[in-house]
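Dear colleagues,

As part of the handover before I leave the project, I'm documenting each prediction I ran so the next person doesn't have to rerun anything. This entry is a single chain, and its sequence is reproduced below.
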Amino acid sequence: MVNPLTDWIDENDSSDWTGRQVIYTIHVSRNEGVGASAEGDPLPAAGQQGYAQVKIAEKFNYGRIELTGQVIKSSLQNKGAFTRAMESEVKGLVKDLGNERERQNFGAGNGVLCLVNGAITTTSSTTLTVDSPYGVTPTTNGARFLSRGAFYAVITTGGTTVEGTFTCGNTISSTGHTVVMSAYKAGTTFSDNAYVVRAKRVVGITTDGAYNSINNEPMGLLGLIDDGTYANTLSNINRTTYPIFKSTVLTINGSLSLDAIQRGIDAADEMGGGDFGNNGVFFTGYDTRREYLKLLQPDRRYSGVDLSKPDGGTKKAALKQGGEITYGDRPWKVSKKAPYGTLFGFLKGSITRYIHVRGEWADEDERIFRNVAGYDKWEAFYRIFDNYHSDRPNEGFRLDGITTTVQALHE
């Protein structure tokens, strides 16, 4: 599966990993021992450049498939059928993991899929009400990232204590507000605004819910392009201590405007190297892109050019080939996993993917499929070890709280 961020980030797969992290020193503040002076005054107090240590923790993603001996034997009677079955499982898993990682690319590394909306006790209800995909506003379509048959853990707000687990049933409301749990531990209370994250084990295991994704995902755009709201510490750099690591975040709480977009660009240029006009890119979801297109209606009405590819930019407006939408001649990209009502702007190459394992089927013993002990089953697993970091988050910006119309769709 193609990751829409691929063309806009750098990749580093030759770094010297120290244990399970990449460590290096970065410049974070200037020498302030400077200033004008009157004749005969003392020299400025001595200063020095400020440095901090970046520590990019390695994050681990896995996918696992399993085939029974009976399926393998029956498929072998027709080699073509066996090949197709194997290719379907192998390629399907890689695609599914890619789909999961696209969601991770827009999160804050915490693994939060949504929030519990209203406390419930599982003995009194099998219906779980959820809101706030990614754990952020808006609250619309809370079940956006919940999938039928998948396992989930419920974690206390702001913490790591597991309140319980559940399996998502086949019923997800058309509005995305509720799901019916098909498996859960009776008598469990899920508190209001508790985090819903992926769980690795089924309900009933002794360590029920202990294996989950809380704080185990790679860092995504909500944490990389942030002012400390969702990730106050980025790769060991505290944004309160070093404000240079803060991105500009503007909360709109209303309709998108061209002025708001320009304010974000201007802030990123003032704080950074002023290069957004040459190397900037915008990322939004489909809902926010529609709001941008609405702003271009007057241009469509009165312009005599090809109206299928408009541009709301105020300088050097250009019509891109292939239907690409732009602002100020900069590309406007869209992802189905981007947070609702949010616009990200950043420079090409300002974000780096640090790769330890790019993506591989585990075969240390020169076999991809291994027998499941005690069963006539055979399994294989795929793995990716990496993480994302930005040395220049102040050259990016984010617009939050854009009013959009959301279609509650589920894959």
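The chain is about 20% helix and 30% strand. The chain has two domains: 1-29+51-108+218-411, 114-216.

All the best with the project,
I.
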